[in-house]
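Recall the central idea of this unit: under ordinary conditions, the amino acid sequence of a chain determines the structure it adopts. In this exercise we apply that idea directly, starting from the sequence alone.
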Amino acid sequence: MEGAFKMINYSVVEVEKKEDYFSIAHPSIAINVTNSRTALKMLMSLLPEIGKIQRIVQNRDSERVYFETFIIGAKYTIVLKDSFTSGYAGVGAKVFKEFLEHAGLSTRESEQLIFKEEPKRAVLKIDFTN
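Accordingly, the structure predicted from this sequence is:
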């Protein structure tokens, strides 16, 4: 990826109801592939097109197995449905961790965000600068 990205802020906020989840009415690109490795390959091929990553947001409800991840770039936004997961140490979480490290998070930072089991229903937000 051109230029190093630096995480400037992150948060994990518990949500009470569906309306509290992050939403974008019309994301530019949707990746609806449940295989995490395939989704990662597709995402990596699209990264040069979306522009500098400004924010990564994930809505999660690990009890209902609902995961929606937004990659917000300077030009376009990509949404991945059920490809990247968090809150446990499964394949989807490990692949999401790989992507976050590619985006500039340290191993420690990505593990704190991805493998922390609580809260079960949450919005994870990561803001970047370069």
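Strands lie at 6-14, 29-31, 53-61, 66-73, 77-81, 121-129.
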